[in-house]
Design a protein that fits this description.
This protein is α/β, with parallel strands linked by helices and 358 residues long. Helix content is 36%, strand content 16%. It has an 8-stranded mixed beta sheet with strand order 1-4-8-5-11-12-13-14, with helices on both faces. A two-stranded antiparallel sheet has the order 2-3. Strands 6-7 form a two-stranded parallel sheet.
Amino acid sequence: MSTPILFHFSQALTLESGKTLSEFNLAYETFGTLNKDKSNAILICHALTGDAHVAGADGWWKDLAGKKKAIDTSRFFVICINTLGSCYGSTGPSSHNPETNKAYASDFPIITISDMVQSQKHLMDALKIPFWLAVIGPSMGGMQALEWAIKFPNKVKACIPIAATSRLSTYALAFGAVGRHAIASDPKWQSGYYDADSAPETGLSIARMIGHITYLSEQSMSQKFGRKLQEKTDYSYQFSTDFQIESYLKHQGDKFVGRFDANSYLFLSKAMSYFDLDKTYVSLEKAFQKVKSRFLILSISSDMLYKSEQSREMARILMRLNKTVTYAEIDSPFGHDAFLLEHKKQTQVLKPFLEALL
């Protein structure tokens, strides 16, 4: 995996809460070449626990971003920025707090999707990129894409939210809250002031297990696991792992704690819960009133987390406002995770849409 570029901003960043970061870093990676008039730049925004390494042999979206792929890095200059609040290089709760000379931990201010986009705009300006040909993002990245189109209408030619939403449903809010409670209930969390070598791994693992359930669909879980037993022929009649689905979720949780920070999970999860275009802009109609982007909105048929109806609602409102919008539903049994798995189906829609922008 390549090392991201680290850009340091010495100026203060005022957050939506009214608090400020006196300085901050953003980690990012680029793929492809920026053309002479800087008109081929595409910003990809990652999901909740993603990073800047979107393309390449081990990139999290390697099947969609790369040479001759849907997001063709032989034609486009692609940049992916690790979001503010994360733990992969950009300033977050595990970063150094210049005021205390310790990690921010729970002293890190609450951030929002708007704050993430505002910080990205600072990097855009520093790199002297005049506009994004497209802003693309799945899940939390799709929320950022929507915020970009609304917040900076003159800077975004096309907005492509994938498996995203304009606000979390009660269902999504509930699962997010339970995940955060799992972390906060771990004795090792220590109100967020834990040592790196004594992190709340149990709570974070449970939070990931809870979250992972929402990323799947009932159909995919039933087809893959059903009620199959894990390496046994009958029930153990003990509080141990009996079913394959139990083993799978535990594996996902155990694997996750080795690569992510518990406080970052809390802050990013909370940021998603606050994202609500209806509330911020009074209504979705008013939110989209001044956008100038053309839109490609993709949803997943079996997504339980951000249902297709939420995407269709955005598309309908944009059409009523006479905005240029294309909507497509990806037919898939894989639930929310389909944005990582259904690269061929997404390519069929993404590739011609992006090519038409040049």
